[in-house]
Amino acid sequence: MQTRPQPMQQRPEPCRNALLSFVLPRPKVLYGAMRVWHTLFLGMIRIASLLALIGAPAAALAAAPAGDPLGSPMWEYHAARVFADAPIMFDDRVKVSLPVLAENQHVLPVTVDARALDGVERIVIFADLNPIPVAVEYTPLAAQAFIATRIKLDQRTPVRAAVLTKDGVWHVAGDWVDAAGGGCSAPPLSRVRGDWADHLGELRGGTWDDGQATRLRLALRHPMDTGLVENIPEYNIEALTVSDEAGTLLARMAIHASVSEDPAFTLKFASGLGGDLKVMARDSGGLEFAGQLSASSGARIAAASR
Amino acid sequence: MLKRRTVVLGALALPMVLPQMARAQGFAGSYNLAADPIGDGIWLVRGADEAITPQNGGAIANIVIMATDAGAIVVDTGPSLSYGRALEALARRLTGTPVARVYITHLHPDHSFGNGAFGSSEIHALPATRAELERDATGFEDAMYRMLPGWIAGTEVVLPQHEATAGVVLVGGRKLELLALAGHSEGDLAILDHATGTLIAGDLVFHNRAPTTPHADVPAWLEALDYLAALPHQQLVPGHGPLCERGAAIAQTRDWLIWLDGALREAVASGLDMTEAGNLPIPERFAGLAEARYELTRSVAHFYPKLEAEMLLRFGG
User: What is the ipTM of this complex?
Assistant: First the structure.
Protein backbone atom coordinates (compact mmCIF):
# COMPACT_ATOMS: atom_id res chain seq x y z
CA MET A 1 0.00 0.00 0.00
CA GLN A 2 1.06 3.55 -0.65
CA THR A 3 2.90 5.10 2.27
CA ARG A 4 1.60 8.54 3.00
CA PRO A 5 4.21 11.03 1.80
CA GLN A 6 5.47 13.84 3.99
CA PRO A 7 3.00 16.71 3.96
CA MET A 8 4.24 19.76 2.19
CA GLN A 9 5.71 22.62 4.12
CA GLN A 10 3.21 24.92 2.50
CA ARG A 11 0.16 24.34 0.41
CA PRO A 12 0.70 25.25 -3.19
CA GLU A 13 -0.86 28.45 -4.28
CA PRO A 14 -4.23 27.92 -5.91
CA CYS A 15 -3.30 26.69 -9.34
CA ARG A 16 -6.59 26.56 -11.07
CA ASN A 17 -7.75 29.36 -13.25
CA ALA A 18 -10.91 30.14 -11.37
CA LEU A 19 -12.91 31.01 -14.43
CA LEU A 20 -11.74 27.94 -16.33
CA SER A 21 -12.54 25.48 -13.62
CA PHE A 22 -16.03 26.81 -13.31
CA VAL A 23 -17.14 27.25 -16.85
CA LEU A 24 -15.53 24.32 -18.61
CA PRO A 25 -17.88 21.39 -18.70
CA ARG A 26 -16.08 18.69 -16.75
CA PRO A 27 -17.75 15.42 -15.87
CA LYS A 28 -18.14 15.15 -12.14
CA VAL A 29 -20.81 12.54 -12.06
CA LEU A 30 -19.22 9.94 -9.89
CA TYR A 31 -16.82 11.92 -7.84
CA GLY A 32 -16.98 14.89 -5.57
CA ALA A 33 -20.58 16.04 -5.62
CA MET A 34 -19.70 18.36 -2.79
CA ARG A 35 -16.98 19.91 -4.85
CA VAL A 36 -19.34 20.50 -7.71
CA TRP A 37 -21.67 22.55 -5.52
CA HIS A 38 -18.79 24.37 -3.96
CA THR A 39 -17.41 25.19 -7.37
CA LEU A 40 -20.79 26.17 -8.70
CA PHE A 41 -21.35 28.50 -5.81
CA LEU A 42 -17.95 30.13 -6.12
CA GLY A 43 -18.39 30.27 -9.84
CA MET A 44 -21.67 32.11 -9.59
CA ILE A 45 -20.11 34.67 -7.33
CA ARG A 46 -17.20 35.05 -9.74
CA ILE A 47 -19.45 35.43 -12.74
CA ALA A 48 -21.59 37.96 -10.89
CA SER A 49 -18.59 40.00 -9.89
CA LEU A 50 -17.14 39.73 -13.35
CA LEU A 51 -20.36 41.00 -14.87
CA ALA A 52 -20.56 43.79 -12.34
CA LEU A 53 -16.97 44.71 -13.15
CA ILE A 54 -17.43 44.98 -16.85
CA GLY A 55 -20.95 46.29 -16.51
CA ALA A 56 -22.13 44.19 -19.41
CA PRO A 57 -25.04 41.85 -19.96
CA ALA A 58 -24.48 38.11 -20.19
CA ALA A 59 -24.07 38.43 -23.94
CA ALA A 60 -20.54 39.69 -23.40
CA LEU A 61 -19.54 36.23 -22.18
CA ALA A 62 -20.75 34.64 -25.37
CA ALA A 63 -18.74 36.93 -27.62
CA ALA A 64 -16.09 34.91 -29.43
CA PRO A 65 -13.74 36.10 -32.10
CA ALA A 66 -14.56 34.94 -35.58
CA GLY A 67 -12.18 33.32 -37.99
CA ASP A 68 -10.81 30.29 -36.21
CA PRO A 69 -8.13 29.16 -38.68
CA LEU A 70 -8.90 25.54 -37.77
CA GLY A 71 -12.63 25.87 -38.44
CA SER A 72 -13.41 23.97 -35.26
CA PRO A 73 -17.10 23.34 -34.53
CA MET A 74 -16.39 23.98 -30.84
CA TRP A 75 -14.25 27.11 -31.15
CA GLU A 76 -16.89 29.68 -30.35
CA TYR A 77 -18.16 27.60 -27.46
CA HIS A 78 -14.73 27.25 -25.88
CA ALA A 79 -13.56 30.74 -26.74
CA ALA A 80 -16.57 32.25 -25.02
CA ARG A 81 -15.89 30.22 -21.91
CA VAL A 82 -12.12 29.96 -21.74
CA PHE A 83 -11.29 33.54 -22.62
CA ALA A 84 -14.51 35.29 -21.66
CA ASP A 85 -14.27 38.66 -23.39
CA ALA A 86 -10.49 38.92 -23.26
CA PRO A 87 -8.80 39.82 -26.55
CA ILE A 88 -7.60 36.84 -28.57
CA MET A 89 -5.21 36.63 -31.48
CA PHE A 90 -4.13 33.63 -33.51
CA ASP A 91 -0.40 33.94 -33.25
CA ASP A 92 2.40 32.04 -35.03
CA ARG A 93 4.81 33.06 -32.31
CA VAL A 94 3.21 30.34 -30.21
CA LYS A 95 4.80 27.16 -31.54
CA VAL A 96 2.71 24.06 -30.94
CA SER A 97 4.62 20.94 -32.01
CA LEU A 98 2.57 17.85 -32.65
CA PRO A 99 3.65 14.51 -34.14
CA VAL A 100 2.88 13.72 -37.77
CA LEU A 101 0.38 11.16 -36.56
CA ALA A 102 -1.31 10.17 -33.32
CA GLU A 103 0.02 6.64 -33.09
CA ASN A 104 -1.56 6.18 -29.68
CA GLN A 105 -4.65 8.17 -28.70
CA HIS A 106 -3.75 7.67 -25.04
CA VAL A 107 -0.37 9.35 -25.43
CA LEU A 108 -0.20 12.35 -27.74
CA PRO A 109 2.96 14.39 -27.18
CA VAL A 110 2.38 18.16 -27.25
CA THR A 111 5.15 20.74 -27.02
CA VAL A 112 4.37 24.43 -26.62
CA ASP A 113 7.11 27.01 -27.06
CA ALA A 114 5.96 30.59 -26.47
CA ARG A 115 9.40 32.01 -25.74
CA ALA A 116 9.03 34.34 -28.73
CA LEU A 117 6.46 36.27 -26.69
CA ASP A 118 7.29 38.63 -23.84
CA GLY A 119 5.54 38.63 -20.50
CA VAL A 120 3.92 35.22 -20.67
CA GLU A 121 1.79 34.65 -17.61
CA ARG A 122 -0.01 31.42 -18.42
CA ILE A 123 -0.10 28.63 -21.00
CA VAL A 124 -3.26 26.59 -21.41
CA ILE A 125 -3.23 23.40 -23.48
CA PHE A 126 -6.61 22.23 -24.68
CA ALA A 127 -8.29 19.99 -27.25
CA ASP A 128 -11.61 21.34 -28.55
CA LEU A 129 -13.38 18.01 -28.97
CA ASN A 130 -12.14 16.23 -25.86
CA PRO A 131 -14.73 15.52 -23.16
CA ILE A 132 -12.24 17.14 -20.77
CA PRO A 133 -11.02 19.91 -23.06
CA VAL A 134 -8.35 21.56 -20.92
CA ALA A 135 -5.33 19.39 -20.11
CA VAL A 136 -2.88 21.77 -18.46
CA GLU A 137 -2.92 25.33 -17.16
CA TYR A 138 0.70 26.31 -16.68
CA THR A 139 1.90 29.37 -14.84
CA PRO A 140 5.62 29.64 -15.60
CA LEU A 141 6.46 32.28 -12.92
CA ALA A 142 10.28 32.10 -13.01
CA ALA A 143 10.32 29.44 -15.74
CA GLN A 144 10.55 30.01 -19.47
CA ALA A 145 7.39 30.01 -21.57
CA PHE A 146 7.83 26.40 -22.65
CA ILE A 147 6.08 23.16 -21.74
CA ALA A 148 5.94 19.68 -23.18
CA THR A 149 3.55 16.99 -22.01
CA ARG A 150 1.37 14.12 -23.24
CA ILE A 151 -2.40 14.17 -23.46
CA LYS A 152 -5.25 11.81 -24.28
CA LEU A 153 -7.50 12.34 -27.29
CA ASP A 154 -11.00 10.99 -27.55
CA GLN A 155 -11.36 11.63 -31.28
CA ARG A 156 -10.01 13.77 -34.13
CA THR A 157 -9.72 17.23 -32.64
CA PRO A 158 -7.91 20.56 -32.73
CA VAL A 159 -5.13 20.62 -30.15
CA ARG A 160 -4.21 24.14 -29.09
CA ALA A 161 -2.16 26.25 -26.81
CA ALA A 162 -3.52 29.54 -25.52
CA VAL A 163 -0.88 31.83 -24.07
CA LEU A 164 -1.83 34.76 -21.87
CA THR A 165 0.56 37.70 -21.89
CA LYS A 166 0.85 40.47 -19.31
CA ASP A 167 -1.22 42.84 -21.44
CA GLY A 168 -4.22 40.55 -21.07
CA VAL A 169 -4.12 39.18 -24.62
CA TRP A 170 -4.50 35.46 -25.34
CA HIS A 171 -2.23 34.21 -28.15
CA VAL A 172 -3.64 31.03 -29.66
CA ALA A 173 -2.10 28.43 -31.97
CA GLY A 174 -2.58 24.75 -32.73
CA ASP A 175 -3.60 22.22 -35.32
CA TRP A 176 -5.95 19.37 -36.02
CA VAL A 177 -4.83 15.94 -34.92
CA ASP A 178 -6.43 12.84 -36.34
CA ALA A 179 -6.82 10.18 -33.68
CA ALA A 180 -8.70 6.97 -33.15
CA GLY A 181 -11.45 7.22 -30.58
CA GLY A 182 -11.46 6.32 -26.95
CA GLY A 183 -8.31 7.88 -25.49
CA CYS A 184 -10.33 9.28 -22.59
CA SER A 185 -12.85 6.50 -22.29
CA ALA A 186 -10.66 3.40 -22.20
CA PRO A 187 -9.16 2.34 -18.87
CA PRO A 188 -5.51 3.18 -18.24
CA LEU A 189 -3.00 0.35 -18.65
CA SER A 190 -2.17 0.27 -14.95
CA ARG A 191 -5.86 -0.34 -14.20
CA VAL A 192 -5.88 -3.22 -16.66
CA ARG A 193 -2.65 -4.63 -15.18
CA GLY A 194 -3.96 -3.88 -11.67
CA ASP A 195 -0.69 -2.45 -10.36
CA TRP A 196 -1.54 1.25 -10.32
CA ALA A 197 -1.53 1.49 -6.53
CA ASP A 198 1.88 -0.18 -6.22
CA HIS A 199 3.61 2.67 -7.99
CA LEU A 200 1.28 5.58 -7.28
CA GLY A 201 3.09 8.88 -7.23
CA GLU A 202 6.58 7.58 -7.98
CA LEU A 203 8.58 10.49 -9.32
CA ARG A 204 11.28 10.19 -11.96
CA GLY A 205 13.19 12.85 -13.76
CA GLY A 206 16.39 14.68 -14.48
CA THR A 207 17.74 18.16 -15.08
CA TRP A 208 20.08 19.17 -17.86
CA ASP A 209 21.76 22.51 -18.53
CA ASP A 210 22.79 23.08 -22.14
CA GLY A 211 23.95 26.66 -21.64
CA GLN A 212 20.70 28.02 -23.09
CA ALA A 213 18.36 26.71 -20.41
CA THR A 214 18.05 24.34 -17.52
CA ARG A 215 15.70 21.64 -18.66
CA LEU A 216 13.60 19.69 -16.20
CA ARG A 217 12.18 16.40 -17.42
CA LEU A 218 9.70 14.97 -14.99
CA ALA A 219 7.43 11.93 -14.92
CA LEU A 220 5.19 10.55 -12.23
CA ARG A 221 3.13 7.42 -11.94
CA HIS A 222 -0.59 8.03 -11.76
CA PRO A 223 -3.59 6.40 -13.50
CA MET A 224 -5.11 9.82 -14.35
CA ASP A 225 -8.62 8.36 -14.44
CA THR A 226 -10.99 10.51 -16.46
CA GLY A 227 -14.21 9.41 -14.75
CA LEU A 228 -15.43 8.33 -18.18
CA VAL A 229 -14.68 4.63 -17.69
CA GLU A 230 -17.39 2.57 -16.09
CA ASN A 231 -16.95 2.09 -12.34
CA ILE A 232 -13.74 4.11 -12.13
CA PRO A 233 -14.31 7.61 -10.72
CA GLU A 234 -12.24 10.56 -11.85
CA TYR A 235 -8.89 10.47 -10.07
CA ASN A 236 -6.00 12.57 -11.28
CA ILE A 237 -3.00 14.68 -10.42
CA GLU A 238 -4.45 18.16 -10.18
CA ALA A 239 -1.59 20.40 -9.09
CA LEU A 240 2.15 20.42 -9.52
CA THR A 241 4.74 22.90 -8.32
CA VAL A 242 8.48 23.27 -8.84
CA SER A 243 10.52 25.21 -6.29
CA ASP A 244 14.20 25.90 -5.80
CA GLU A 245 16.22 24.57 -2.89
CA ALA A 246 15.20 27.50 -0.71
CA GLY A 247 11.56 26.76 -1.36
CA THR A 248 10.91 29.70 -3.70
CA LEU A 249 8.18 28.78 -6.13
CA LEU A 250 9.51 28.70 -9.71
CA ALA A 251 6.54 27.29 -11.64
CA ARG A 252 3.16 25.78 -11.01
CA MET A 253 0.42 24.13 -12.98
CA ALA A 254 -3.10 22.85 -12.73
CA ILE A 255 -3.50 19.46 -14.36
CA HIS A 256 -6.68 17.83 -15.58
CA ALA A 257 -7.56 14.20 -16.22
CA SER A 258 -7.05 14.55 -19.98
CA VAL A 259 -3.30 14.47 -19.36
CA SER A 260 -2.00 10.97 -20.14
CA GLU A 261 -1.58 8.23 -17.60
CA ASP A 262 1.81 8.54 -15.87
CA PRO A 263 2.05 12.28 -16.65
CA ALA A 264 5.33 13.57 -18.03
CA PHE A 265 6.47 17.17 -18.43
CA THR A 266 9.40 19.13 -19.76
CA LEU A 267 9.88 22.59 -18.26
CA LYS A 268 12.69 25.04 -18.87
CA PHE A 269 14.37 27.51 -16.57
CA ALA A 270 17.14 30.05 -17.01
CA SER A 271 20.50 28.44 -17.59
CA GLY A 272 22.77 28.17 -14.59
CA LEU A 273 19.93 27.56 -12.18
CA GLY A 274 22.21 25.28 -10.11
CA GLY A 275 20.97 23.66 -6.94
CA ASP A 276 18.28 21.07 -6.46
CA LEU A 277 14.71 21.37 -7.64
CA LYS A 278 11.82 20.48 -5.36
CA VAL A 279 8.80 18.96 -7.06
CA MET A 280 5.44 18.58 -5.38
CA ALA A 281 2.31 17.09 -6.88
CA ARG A 282 -1.13 16.68 -5.37
CA ASP A 283 -3.87 14.44 -6.66
CA SER A 284 -7.62 14.79 -6.48
CA GLY A 285 -7.71 12.35 -3.58
CA GLY A 286 -5.56 14.73 -1.55
CA LEU A 287 -2.38 12.64 -1.70
CA GLU A 288 0.81 14.59 -2.05
CA PHE A 289 3.91 13.34 -3.81
CA ALA A 290 7.15 15.21 -3.30
CA GLY A 291 10.78 14.82 -4.18
CA GLN A 292 14.00 16.70 -4.61
CA LEU A 293 15.97 16.39 -7.83
CA SER A 294 19.67 17.08 -7.77
CA ALA A 295 21.31 19.41 -10.28
CA SER A 296 23.59 16.57 -11.34
CA SER A 297 20.71 14.17 -12.14
CA GLY A 298 20.85 14.66 -15.92
CA ALA A 299 24.58 14.08 -16.01
CA ARG A 300 24.11 10.89 -13.99
CA ILE A 301 21.44 9.61 -16.36
CA ALA A 302 23.64 10.36 -19.35
CA ALA A 303 26.60 8.62 -17.70
CA ALA A 304 24.51 5.54 -16.87
CA SER A 305 23.30 5.25 -20.46
CA ARG A 306 26.80 5.03 -21.90
CA MET B 1 -32.06 31.20 -69.42
CA LEU B 2 -32.56 30.08 -65.87
CA LYS B 3 -31.73 26.57 -66.89
CA ARG B 4 -28.53 27.65 -68.59
CA ARG B 5 -27.37 29.64 -65.60
CA THR B 6 -27.93 26.63 -63.40
CA VAL B 7 -25.79 24.57 -65.69
CA VAL B 8 -22.99 27.14 -65.69
CA LEU B 9 -23.09 27.48 -61.93
CA GLY B 10 -23.13 23.75 -61.61
CA ALA B 11 -20.08 23.42 -63.79
CA LEU B 12 -18.28 26.08 -61.76
CA ALA B 13 -19.18 24.36 -58.55
CA LEU B 14 -17.96 20.98 -59.67
CA PRO B 15 -14.21 21.44 -59.24
CA MET B 16 -14.87 22.82 -55.77
CA VAL B 17 -17.09 19.98 -54.75
CA LEU B 18 -15.45 17.06 -56.45
CA PRO B 19 -12.24 16.80 -54.45
CA GLN B 20 -14.30 16.66 -51.28
CA MET B 21 -16.58 14.05 -52.72
CA ALA B 22 -13.68 12.13 -54.10
CA ARG B 23 -12.09 12.08 -50.68
CA ALA B 24 -15.29 11.08 -49.00
CA GLN B 25 -15.98 8.32 -51.46
CA GLY B 26 -12.42 7.36 -52.34
CA PHE B 27 -12.85 4.19 -50.35
CA ALA B 28 -14.88 2.45 -52.99
CA GLY B 29 -11.69 0.98 -54.47
CA SER B 30 -10.85 -2.52 -55.56
CA TYR B 31 -7.58 -4.39 -55.45
CA ASN B 32 -5.73 -5.02 -58.71
CA LEU B 33 -3.20 -7.58 -57.62
CA ALA B 34 -0.23 -8.43 -59.77
CA ALA B 35 2.23 -11.24 -59.17
CA ASP B 36 5.88 -11.32 -60.26
CA PRO B 37 7.41 -14.76 -60.79
CA ILE B 38 10.57 -14.94 -58.63
CA GLY B 39 11.49 -18.58 -59.26
CA ASP B 40 10.09 -21.92 -60.32
CA GLY B 41 6.50 -22.08 -59.03
CA ILE B 42 6.85 -19.07 -56.74
CA TRP B 43 5.39 -15.58 -57.14
CA LEU B 44 5.67 -12.33 -55.23
CA VAL B 45 2.70 -9.98 -54.83
CA ARG B 46 4.35 -6.68 -53.94
CA GLY B 47 2.77 -4.35 -51.43
CA ALA B 48 3.02 -0.59 -51.68
CA ASP B 49 5.99 0.72 -49.66
CA GLU B 50 3.71 3.08 -47.79
CA ALA B 51 1.71 3.42 -44.61
CA ILE B 52 -1.85 2.08 -44.65
CA THR B 53 -3.97 4.72 -46.41
CA PRO B 54 -7.45 4.88 -47.94
CA GLN B 55 -5.69 5.18 -51.31
CA ASN B 56 -3.76 1.89 -51.14
CA GLY B 57 -6.48 -0.02 -49.30
CA GLY B 58 -3.91 -1.33 -46.85
CA ALA B 59 -2.23 -3.45 -49.54
CA ILE B 60 1.24 -2.71 -48.20
CA ALA B 61 2.63 -6.12 -47.25
CA ASN B 62 4.44 -8.49 -49.58
CA ILE B 63 2.61 -11.75 -50.22
CA VAL B 64 4.05 -14.99 -51.62
CA ILE B 65 2.26 -17.64 -53.68
CA MET B 66 3.77 -21.09 -54.27
CA ALA B 67 2.59 -23.97 -56.44
CA THR B 68 2.63 -27.56 -55.15
CA ASP B 69 1.13 -30.85 -56.31
CA ALA B 70 -1.31 -30.67 -53.41
CA GLY B 71 -2.56 -27.18 -54.22
CA ALA B 72 -1.27 -23.66 -53.83
CA ILE B 73 0.42 -22.22 -50.73
CA VAL B 74 -0.12 -18.60 -49.83
CA VAL B 75 2.08 -16.78 -47.30
CA ASP B 76 0.06 -13.99 -45.64
CA THR B 77 -3.40 -12.94 -46.72
CA GLY B 78 -3.39 -9.12 -46.83
CA PRO B 79 -5.43 -6.43 -45.10
CA SER B 80 -9.07 -7.30 -45.80
CA LEU B 81 -11.59 -9.87 -46.90
CA SER B 82 -11.81 -8.42 -50.40
CA TYR B 83 -8.01 -8.45 -50.70
CA GLY B 84 -8.02 -12.09 -49.57
CA ARG B 85 -10.59 -12.95 -52.21
CA ALA B 86 -8.58 -11.26 -54.95
CA LEU B 87 -5.47 -13.07 -53.71
CA GLU B 88 -7.23 -16.43 -53.65
CA ALA B 89 -8.40 -15.91 -57.24
CA LEU B 90 -4.91 -14.86 -58.30
CA ALA B 91 -3.30 -17.92 -56.68
CA ARG B 92 -5.84 -20.18 -58.33
CA ARG B 93 -5.20 -18.61 -61.72
CA LEU B 94 -1.40 -18.79 -61.41
CA THR B 95 -1.18 -22.34 -60.10
CA GLY B 96 -4.29 -23.84 -61.65
CA THR B 97 -5.22 -25.30 -58.26
CA PRO B 98 -7.17 -24.13 -55.22
CA VAL B 99 -5.23 -22.81 -52.24
CA ALA B 100 -4.50 -25.78 -49.99
CA ARG B 101 -2.57 -24.05 -47.28
CA VAL B 102 -1.99 -20.58 -45.86
CA TYR B 103 0.88 -19.49 -43.62
CA ILE B 104 0.51 -16.32 -41.55
CA THR B 105 3.92 -14.86 -40.69
CA HIS B 106 2.73 -12.73 -37.76
CA LEU B 107 -0.29 -11.02 -36.23
CA HIS B 108 -0.33 -7.63 -37.95
CA PRO B 109 -3.51 -6.85 -39.87
CA ASP B 110 -1.81 -6.00 -43.17
CA HIS B 111 -0.67 -9.65 -43.18
CA SER B 112 -3.54 -11.50 -41.55
CA PHE B 113 -6.86 -9.80 -42.24
CA GLY B 114 -7.56 -11.59 -45.52
CA ASN B 115 -7.88 -14.96 -43.74
CA GLY B 116 -11.65 -14.93 -44.16
CA ALA B 117 -11.26 -15.59 -47.90
CA PHE B 118 -9.47 -18.88 -47.22
CA GLY B 119 -12.21 -20.74 -45.41
CA SER B 120 -11.58 -23.98 -47.27
CA SER B 121 -7.79 -23.87 -46.80
CA GLU B 122 -5.71 -24.84 -43.79
CA ILE B 123 -4.44 -21.66 -42.12
CA HIS B 124 -1.20 -22.19 -40.21
CA ALA B 125 0.58 -19.87 -37.79
CA LEU B 126 2.88 -20.00 -34.78
CA PRO B 127 0.99 -20.51 -31.48
CA ALA B 128 2.29 -17.12 -30.29
CA THR B 129 0.77 -15.47 -33.36
CA ARG B 130 -2.59 -17.05 -32.71
CA ALA B 131 -2.48 -15.90 -29.08
CA GLU B 132 -1.53 -12.36 -30.10
CA LEU B 133 -4.31 -12.26 -32.69
CA GLU B 134 -6.82 -13.39 -30.09
CA ARG B 135 -5.60 -10.62 -27.80
CA ASP B 136 -5.44 -7.79 -30.34
CA ALA B 137 -7.95 -8.65 -33.05
CA THR B 138 -10.70 -6.38 -31.75
CA GLY B 139 -8.39 -3.39 -31.46
CA PHE B 140 -6.98 -4.04 -34.94
CA GLU B 141 -10.49 -4.32 -36.38
CA ASP B 142 -11.43 -0.96 -34.88
CA ALA B 143 -8.30 0.65 -36.28
CA MET B 144 -8.66 -0.93 -39.73
CA TYR B 145 -12.33 0.01 -40.07
CA ARG B 146 -11.37 3.57 -39.16
CA MET B 147 -8.46 3.76 -41.60
CA LEU B 148 -9.93 1.80 -44.50
CA PRO B 149 -13.64 2.52 -44.71
CA GLY B 150 -15.19 0.54 -47.55
CA TRP B 151 -12.11 -1.53 -48.34
CA ILE B 152 -12.49 -3.46 -45.13
CA ALA B 153 -16.22 -4.24 -45.46
CA GLY B 154 -17.12 -7.71 -44.28
CA THR B 155 -13.70 -8.40 -42.82
CA GLU B 156 -13.61 -10.44 -39.63
CA VAL B 157 -10.56 -11.89 -38.00
CA VAL B 158 -10.28 -15.62 -38.68
CA LEU B 159 -7.85 -17.26 -36.28
CA PRO B 160 -5.41 -19.78 -37.74
CA GLN B 161 -6.53 -23.28 -36.75
CA HIS B 162 -3.23 -25.07 -37.41
CA GLU B 163 -0.04 -24.72 -35.42
CA ALA B 164 3.12 -24.11 -37.35
CA THR B 165 6.17 -25.62 -35.67
CA ALA B 166 9.83 -25.17 -36.50
CA GLY B 167 11.24 -27.75 -38.91
CA VAL B 168 10.97 -29.10 -42.42
CA VAL B 169 7.56 -29.79 -43.95
CA LEU B 170 6.76 -31.35 -47.28
CA VAL B 171 3.64 -30.02 -48.97
CA GLY B 172 2.69 -31.56 -52.31
CA GLY B 173 6.34 -32.26 -53.12
CA ARG B 174 7.53 -28.79 -52.09
CA LYS B 175 10.01 -28.77 -49.21
CA LEU B 176 9.66 -25.83 -46.83
CA GLU B 177 11.72 -25.09 -43.74
CA LEU B 178 9.69 -23.31 -41.09
CA LEU B 179 11.60 -21.02 -38.71
CA ALA B 180 9.91 -20.05 -35.45
CA LEU B 181 11.39 -16.69 -34.49
CA ALA B 182 10.35 -13.52 -32.63
CA GLY B 183 11.31 -9.90 -32.21
CA HIS B 184 9.14 -7.97 -34.63
CA SER B 185 6.28 -9.52 -32.68
CA GLU B 186 6.05 -12.37 -30.18
CA GLY B 187 5.76 -14.89 -33.00
CA ASP B 188 7.48 -14.36 -36.35
CA LEU B 189 7.36 -17.20 -38.84
CA ALA B 190 9.98 -17.21 -41.58
CA ILE B 191 9.90 -19.79 -44.37
CA LEU B 192 12.73 -21.08 -46.53
CA ASP B 193 11.61 -22.59 -49.85
CA HIS B 194 14.25 -25.21 -50.61
CA ALA B 195 13.52 -25.54 -54.34
CA THR B 196 14.33 -21.90 -55.08
CA GLY B 197 16.38 -20.90 -52.04
CA THR B 198 13.84 -18.17 -51.31
CA LEU B 199 13.74 -16.97 -47.71
CA ILE B 200 10.32 -15.51 -46.91
CA ALA B 201 11.21 -13.37 -43.92
CA GLY B 202 7.92 -11.73 -42.99
CA ASP B 203 8.34 -8.48 -41.09
CA LEU B 204 11.59 -9.60 -39.49
CA VAL B 205 13.17 -7.99 -42.55
CA PHE B 206 12.29 -4.69 -44.20
CA HIS B 207 13.98 -3.48 -47.38
CA ASN B 208 14.24 0.19 -48.37
CA ARG B 209 11.24 0.79 -46.14
CA ALA B 210 11.58 1.75 -42.47
CA PRO B 211 10.76 -1.09 -40.02
CA THR B 212 7.61 -0.90 -37.92
CA THR B 213 7.76 -1.54 -34.18
CA PRO B 214 4.35 -1.66 -32.47
CA HIS B 215 5.08 -5.07 -30.88
CA ALA B 216 8.85 -5.11 -31.25
CA ASP B 217 11.43 -6.44 -28.83
CA VAL B 218 14.65 -5.07 -30.27
CA PRO B 219 17.17 -7.51 -28.68
CA ALA B 220 15.07 -10.51 -29.74
CA TRP B 221 14.67 -9.04 -33.21
CA LEU B 222 18.44 -8.62 -33.59
CA GLU B 223 18.91 -12.24 -32.53
CA ALA B 224 16.40 -13.36 -35.16
CA LEU B 225 18.25 -11.32 -37.80
CA ASP B 226 21.52 -13.05 -36.84
CA TYR B 227 19.78 -16.37 -37.32
CA LEU B 228 18.44 -15.41 -40.74
CA ALA B 229 21.77 -13.97 -41.85
CA ALA B 230 23.48 -17.26 -41.04
CA LEU B 231 20.91 -19.26 -43.00
CA PRO B 232 22.06 -19.98 -46.57
CA HIS B 233 19.55 -18.62 -49.11
CA GLN B 234 19.49 -17.33 -52.68
CA GLN B 235 17.05 -14.46 -52.35
CA LEU B 236 14.93 -12.92 -49.64
CA VAL B 237 11.34 -11.67 -49.66
CA PRO B 238 11.06 -8.95 -46.99
CA GLY B 239 7.73 -8.21 -45.32
CA HIS B 240 7.84 -4.80 -46.97
CA GLY B 241 10.01 -3.50 -49.80
CA PRO B 242 11.57 -5.00 -52.91
CA LEU B 243 12.92 -8.53 -53.30
CA CYS B 244 16.47 -8.70 -51.96
CA GLU B 245 18.99 -10.70 -53.91
CA ARG B 246 22.23 -9.62 -52.24
CA GLY B 247 21.66 -9.87 -48.51
CA ALA B 248 21.45 -6.10 -48.01
CA ALA B 249 17.99 -6.12 -46.45
CA ILE B 250 18.94 -8.02 -43.29
CA ALA B 251 21.89 -5.70 -42.68
CA GLN B 252 19.74 -2.64 -43.38
CA THR B 253 17.03 -3.74 -40.94
CA ARG B 254 19.67 -4.42 -38.29
CA ASP B 255 21.31 -1.05 -38.92
CA TRP B 256 18.00 0.81 -38.50
CA LEU B 257 17.05 -1.03 -35.30
CA ILE B 258 20.43 -0.43 -33.66
CA TRP B 259 20.35 3.23 -34.67
CA LEU B 260 16.74 3.63 -33.46
CA ASP B 261 17.38 2.04 -30.08
CA GLY B 262 20.55 4.06 -29.54
CA ALA B 263 18.99 7.33 -30.71
CA LEU B 264 15.96 6.96 -28.43
CA ARG B 265 18.13 6.06 -25.44
CA GLU B 266 20.34 9.04 -26.10
CA ALA B 267 17.25 11.24 -26.41
CA VAL B 268 15.99 10.10 -23.00
CA ALA B 269 19.47 10.54 -21.54
CA SER B 270 19.51 14.15 -22.75
CA GLY B 271 16.07 14.92 -21.38
CA LEU B 272 14.29 15.29 -24.73
CA ASP B 273 10.53 14.87 -24.83
CA MET B 274 8.64 12.71 -27.32
CA THR B 275 8.05 15.49 -29.83
CA GLU B 276 11.74 16.30 -29.92
CA ALA B 277 12.66 12.63 -30.22
CA GLY B 278 10.28 12.27 -33.17
CA ASN B 279 12.05 15.19 -34.86
CA LEU B 280 15.55 13.77 -34.39
CA PRO B 281 17.66 13.93 -37.54
CA ILE B 282 17.59 10.66 -39.49
CA PRO B 283 21.08 9.68 -40.71
CA GLU B 284 21.81 10.17 -44.39
CA ARG B 285 22.35 6.45 -44.94
CA PHE B 286 18.62 5.87 -44.33
CA ALA B 287 17.60 8.42 -46.99
CA GLY B 288 16.47 5.56 -49.24
CA LEU B 289 14.08 4.12 -46.67
CA ALA B 290 10.43 4.90 -47.38
CA GLU B 291 8.35 6.20 -44.45
CA ALA B 292 11.40 6.76 -42.24
CA ARG B 293 10.06 9.86 -40.43
CA TYR B 294 6.62 8.30 -40.06
CA GLU B 295 8.02 5.13 -38.53
CA LEU B 296 10.42 7.03 -36.26
CA THR B 297 7.43 8.96 -34.91
CA ARG B 298 5.53 5.72 -34.36
CA SER B 299 8.52 4.06 -32.71
CA VAL B 300 8.87 7.00 -30.31
CA ALA B 301 5.27 6.38 -29.26
CA HIS B 302 5.97 2.65 -28.87
CA PHE B 303 9.20 2.86 -26.88
CA TYR B 304 9.59 6.24 -25.22
CA PRO B 305 7.46 6.00 -22.06
CA LYS B 306 9.03 2.65 -21.21
CA LEU B 307 12.56 3.93 -21.82
CA GLU B 308 11.90 6.95 -19.61
CA ALA B 309 10.55 4.75 -16.84
CA GLU B 310 13.72 2.69 -17.11
CA MET B 311 16.29 5.47 -17.43
CA LEU B 312 15.14 8.60 -15.58
CA LEU B 313 16.20 8.91 -11.93
CA ARG B 314 13.74 7.96 -9.23
CA PHE B 315 13.69 10.85 -6.80
CA GLY B 316 10.67 10.64 -4.57
CA GLY B 317 6.93 10.26 -4.41
Answer: 0.82
